[in-house]
Specification:
The chain has 401 residues and is an alpha/beta fold. Helices cover 41% and strands 14% of the residues. The strands form two sheets. The protein has a seven-stranded parallel β-sheet. Strands 10-9-8-11-12-13 form a six-stranded parallel β-sheet, sandwiched between helices. It is globular, with a radius of gyration of 22 Å.
C-alpha cells in the first residue's frame, strides 16, 4: 500500500517562491506516495495550471479556521501580548502562548482536518504553520510531523524581523522540538538552530531548480536582471537602484531590468525618476514567462537583505548567468567561489561589483554557473525528501524495543 503524505500550506495558488517549490516537490512526490495538499487558500483560487499541476494526481483540500468567541479572543490576545512583551521564560509559558495564539476551536478544527485521511507524514510549510502543526501533534496520533522552514534563521528571529522577531525565538524553538523532524534550507541555519538549542538538530535539504531551462543566455545583451516580490526591504531593490546610480556614472552602456510587483513599486519608481535613470532601469510586471528574461540577461543580481534560499540564483545560473550577490550564507552555500559577492547592504560595494561584472571572462563564468545549477536537480532533492519520509513512516517493530 502506498504511503500517504500531506503538505499543509498557507497558500498554493498565489505567486511566490515557496508556493512554486511546494508545488514542484509535491508533484515529484506523487511518483512514490499518495499526496494531499491542505491549503488555506479559498477554493475559488484553485488553478492547477498555475504551477503546472494539471496532470499531477494530487488531492486538494481547502481549510478555513473557525471563528473564536469574542471574549475568548480578548483573553487570548491579552496573554499573548504579555508573553511577547515580557518574554516569559520556560516551556510551560511557551505552551500557554501556543494555546493563546492558536485557540482550542482552531486547533481542534485543524487536527480534525489532518485526521480526515490517515496520513503517514504531514509537512507544515513555513515556520508559523510548522509551529501550529507542532501544537496539534498529540491530536493526530499515528502521523509523523515535519516542519519545513523557508526563511533564514536571521530573517525570522533577528531584530526588526518582519516575520517573528527575537521575542518569539525561544517559543518557536520549544515548539519545533515537538515535531518529529525539522527541515531547513542551509547548513548555516541548521547550525544556528542547534547552537541556540542543542536539543534541535534540523535536517538540511536545498530547494530544487523548479523549471526546465530553455534558451541559455549568449552573454551579449549588457543587461543586469533582478527578480522578486516588492516586499519591504526584503529583496533590497532599493539598494540595487542606488548602486546602479553610482555604476551608471562610470558606465553608459548597461541597463537594469527588475521583474516583480508589490508594495514598494512606487518607491522604486520614484528613485529611478529622482536619478533620471528611466532610460536605463526598467521595471517589468510579474510574468509566467520569466525564462525569457533570464535568456536575455547577461548578469543576474541578488541584492536581498535576507533569503531562506536563493531560488532565483539557481534559476539564473541554469540559464548560464553569472551572479552578483549579497554575501548571504545561503548564497555562499549555493555558489561558493562561482559567485561575485558584496557586503550585505553595502551600496558602494554593490556598485563596484556591477562594474566588475561588466569585465568578466563571461564564457568561463557562465560555464561555472551551469555547473552549479546542475547540483539542484529535482531528482536529487526528491531523493532526500524520500529518505526522511520513509524513515519516519517505517513501522515500529517490537524487535526494535
Amino acid at each position: 500500500m502506498r504511503k500517504k503524505i500531506c503538505f499543509l500550506v498557507d497558500s498554493l495558488f498565489t505567486v511566490g517562491g515557496v508556493q512554486r517549490v511546494t508545488a514542484v516537490i509535491a508533484k515529484a512526490m506523487t511518483e512514490h506516495y499518495d499526496v494531499t495538499i491542505v491549503t488555506l487558500d479559498p477554493p475559488e483560487l484553485k488553478d492547477t495550471t498555475f504551477y503546472d499541476l494539471s496532470d499531477a494526481p494530487i488531492t486538494y483540500r481547502f481549510f478555513r479556521y473557525p471563528p473564536v468567541l469574542w471574549w475568548k479572543r480578548l483573553f487570548c490576545k491579552a496573554y499573548s501580548a504579555c508573553y511577547r512583551k515580557l518574554r516569559l521564560p520556560g516551556r510551560r509559558a511557551s505552551d500557554l502562548y501556543a494555546r493563546s495564539s492558536f485557540p482550542w476551536e482552531q486547533r481542534d478544527a485543524l487536527s480534525r482536518e489532518l485526521i480526515h485521511d490517515v496520513y503517514d507524514v504531514v509537512i507544515g510549510v513555513h515556520a508559523p504553520l510548522a509551529v501550529r502543526l507542532a501544537s496539534v501533534r498529540h491530536m493526530i496520533l499515528g502521523t509523523k510531523t515535519v516542519g519545513w522552514i523557508h526563511n533564514s534563521f536571521e530573517a525570522l528571529y533577528g531584530a526588526g524581523s518582519p516575520y517573528i522577531g527575537p521575542e518569539l525565538k525561544r517559543h518557536y524553538v520549544y515548539q519545533l522540538r515537538k515535531l518529529h523532524e525539522t527541515v531547513v534550507l542551509s547548513h548555516h541555519d541548521a547550525q544556528a538552530y542547534h547552537t541556540y538549542d542543542p536539543c534541535l538538530t534540523p535536517r538540511v535539504i536545498f530547494n530544487p531548480l523548479t523549471l526546465n531551462p530553455k534558451k541559455p543566455s549568449d552573454g551579449t545583451s549588457k543587461q543586469f536582471l533582478a527578480v522578486g516580490r516588492f516586499t519591504p526591504r526584503h529583496k533590497g531593490f532599493d539598494l540595487l537602484i542606488d548602486a546602479f546610480h553610482i555604476f551608471a556614472q562610470k558606465n553608459a552602456d548597461w541597463t537594469l531590468h527588475i521583474v516583480g510587483e508589490g508594495l514598494e513599486e512606487k518607491l522604486y519608481r520614484q528613485k529611478i525618476s529622482d536619478y533620471r535613470l528611466e532610460h536605463r532601469i526598467t521595471i517589468h510586471p510579474f510574468t509566467h514567462d520569466i525564462q525569457s528574461y533570464y535568456s536575455q540577461a547577461q548578469v543576474y543580481v541578488l541584492s536581498s537583505r535576507w533569503e531562506g534560499f536563493g531560488l532565483v540564483i539557481v534559476e539564473a545560473m541554469a540559464h548560464g548567468l553569472p551572479v552578483v550577490s549579497s554575501n548571504l550564507p545561503t548564497s555562499l552555500e549555493i555558489m561558493g567561489d562561482a559567485g561575485i559577492y558584496f557586503a550585505n547592504g553595502n551600496v558602494a560595494e554593490l556598485a563596484d561589483c556591477l562594474l566588475k561584472a561588466t569585465h568578466l571572462d563571461w564564457p568561463r563564468k557562465s560555464a561555472e554557473a551551469l555547473a552549479v545549477a546542475s547540483r539542484f536537480d529535482i531528482s536529487s532533492i526528491t531523493r532526500q525528501w524520500k529518505e526522511i519520509i520513509d524513515a519516519l513512516s517505517k513501522p515500529y517493530l517490537l524487535s526494535q524495543l
